[in-house]
Please model this.
Amino acid sequence: VVKRLRMQLLTALTGLGAMVAAALMVYHYIEGWSWLDALYMVAITISTVGYDDHNPSPFAKAFTIAFIGYWLVVGALVVRLVTEYVVEELEFRSFTARKMQRSIEALKEHYIICGYGRMGSQIAREFQRAKVPFVVVESNPAKVEALLEAGLLFVEGDATQDEVLERAGIRQAKGLIAVADSDATNIFITLTARGLQPDLFIVARAAQEDAESKLLRAGANRVISPYVIGGRRIAAAVLTPTVVEFFDAILHSDEADLGIGEVALPPTCRWVGKSLQESGLREETGVIVIGLRRGQRFLTHLSADTVLQAGDVLIAIGTGEQIERLAHLIGA
Model:
């Protein structure tokens, strides 16, 4: 309905503009008046002032009568369409907001992306590709329109405010990503989120080097510097281009049936206390364990005799189905 009204309104306004242009040309070329006098005649006609010191020809009088009639009819149509458009737009936004809020309230274990700029929109695309539930928090009206067009769940507002993050479902969220335009805003977002949810996993973007320590003190679990990562990636693309292409194909390609996943081993997992060979993990799932995280250390030189411990985070490579099977067996 809103799109239909928008098109009708655009058509009506175009008609009014065309009629004004026609009137200017009639008064200028046929009556021989200057452009200023022609514009003056149009202005007093459409404003219904009626004051005029010109002596128009019979043709110009007839045209002016038709012009006034056309303007009144189409002008009334424009007023009606504008009123309907505003009402329908408000109702549509209200309905969309209520429906979206219900969808957000139903989410659990989702992520909150604070900021829908270049980085935030890329994160959203990656989450969509991985089918990860998420909500975007954005205050910029232009970016809100882009979120509406994309059909994404979002909350319009300032992510540094408690109420806005509450509406985004921070109590049920699995993590939050602060990628606003400024480091100061990301620090405030992190402080607010940490205060509302002490156990939340928070990743924040830092544009300046000195912001990293501040974000960590504010409560961020990870701080990402796009410039540092970009520099490393460019260097790697020059030094080891094949390796970079390989990992790009695994991590970012929709066509490659291969990926890297991580799964934590709970104390109840039947593989705890067994070596990789004894666990039969490779035979049961088909994945290849390329490393694991134990506490704050990464173990990369794994052997068949490496014993798995509770709390280990396995880093495995395999197809999507194989990684899902690994997660299922660990949770079983």
